[in-house]
Amino acid sequence: MSLDDFYLTGDEQDQLAVKHKDNQLLKYRGNAGTHDLDLALSVLNKLKLKKTSSSSLTTPSVNDMDIQIPKYDKSLRDGRGDRSPVSEWNQINKNCPVDVVLFEGWMLGFNSYKSINKSIDVLTDEMKTIDNYLSNYKPLDELFDCWLVLAVDDINYVFEWRSQAEREMRRSGRSAMTEEQVRDFVSRFMPAYNAYLPDLYTHGPQRKTNSPVNKIVVGFDRLPINNDISTNITSRL
Description:
By secondary structure, the chain is of the alpha+beta class. It is built from eight helices and seven strands; from the N terminus they run αααββββααβαααββ. It has helices at residues 10-19, 37-56, 60-63, 125-134, 138-141, 157-171, 179-187, 190-203; strands at 67-69, 72-73, 82-83, 90-92, 147-152, 213-218, 231-232. Helix 6 (157-171) crosses helix 7. The two termini are 30 Å apart.
């Protein structure tokens, strides 16, 4: 599963952009504030309950539920994206056990400056708004039992990685962003990367107590650098 699948709908994203019309970081999907956190928490909590009940059988009613997993189609609205219709969502049938849930997201675990008592005075006005939204992600981050941080040795790789994904969509006959649109789109992620990655790489994600964290550094080819499989990260506490 991906945090991307819990982006706001296209209409909701447009409303958010209007609400923050002077904030270019909220014009499109991506940054904190552009996700439906209630939906994400609802789905993940159901999966956790289903996992618990499938092993302990203490809550039979949970096993009677089909759980629908949202999908987000990044090719819709000329590459700006929109949530897929419910009829296209994936479904975990009530008789299907849930053992492990892998959940990925580019900004999962980012510690807001507010949460670590770091002065927001160094942030731009646009990033102060993002930091405020980011503080709402703590309940989501605290759901996870363990973490794997994929660190990059050069954050600028993300420009080409996004371009690669868009070219793949275009080859498959779907709408996609142009190279110029990709650069404009990805540039809106960079302030958050620059603000939050140093702390993430050093102290790990915001998380519930005793959640283990490993870090793997990858290069442009997305493979581990110097055969470094993983490095433990210790909390700032």
